[in-house]
Amino acid sequence: MVITDVRIRLITEGNDRLLAICAVEVDDEFVIWGIKVIQGKNGLFVAMPDRKLMDCCPKCHGKNHLRAHFCNKCGKKLEEKRAECDAHGYEKLHIDIVHPVNNGCRQYMKEVILDAYEDEIQEAKRPGYVSRYDSEQSEEFIPPPIIIN
């Protein structure tokens, strides 16, 4: 696998930790949208696209996010702390949609994305800067809107 392009949208307001959203092109044939660059406690890290985990209401079987206090369908009060916890005791509220299968691939993606992020920061200082994330969209494909959780 070769990452052939990385497009970055810098996030400049609204969130202290979320620094950028990326689109990564693989082998000039496949694009992954929604990869995030996040400022963590131990430095920058790359988070893969994810979705919220859901469960079903015990009364009506309607789907609800694990942090919901009441069912979206019938209004029944839901139990607190319905999410499973990981090895560190944190609730698992999201699951990756796309992710590297091994550590070598994860490290490669992280290095390429963070290098592109640093380059984008420098580009953003130039007059007339426009993010390639927004400016080089294919006419056949418009990227999905960014929803910050």
Descriptive notes:
By secondary structure, the protein is of the alpha+beta class. The protein folds into two domains: 3-49 and 97-135, Stage V sporulation protein G (Arylsulfatase, C-terminal domain), CATH 3.30.1120; 50-96, no CATH class. 17% of the residues lie in helices and 30% in strands. It contains two helices and eight strands; from the N terminus they run E-E-E-E-E-E-E-E-H-H. The chain has helices spanning 103-124, 132-135; strands at 3-10, 18-26, 30-40, 43-47, 50-52, 54-56, 63-65, 94-96. The strands form three sheets. A four-stranded antiparallel beta sheet has the order 1-2-3-4. Strands 5-8 form a two-stranded antiparallel ribbon. Strand 1 (3-10) and strand 2 (18-26) form a beta hairpin. The chain is elongated, with a radius of gyration of 18 Å. The mean pLDDT is 88.
Strand content: 25-35%
CATH architecture of the largest domain: 2-Layer Sandwich
Instruction: Compute the separation of the termini in Å.
Output: 30 Å
What would the average pLDDT be, to the nearest integer?
88
CATH topology of the largest domain: Arylsulfatase, C-terminal domain
Number of helices: 2
Widest β-sheet, arrangement of strands: 1-2-3-4
Kindly give the count of domains: 2
Structural class: alpha+beta
Helix content: 10-25%
CATH top-level class of the largest domain: Alpha Beta
Radius of gyration: 18 Å
Largest sheet, in brief, is: 4 strands, antiparallel
Q: Order of helices and strands, N to C?
A: EEEEEEEEHH
Could you state the CATH homologous superfamily of the largest domain? Stage V sporulation protein G
The number of E-state strands comes to 8
Which of globular, elongated, flat, extended, rod-shaped describes the shape?
elongated
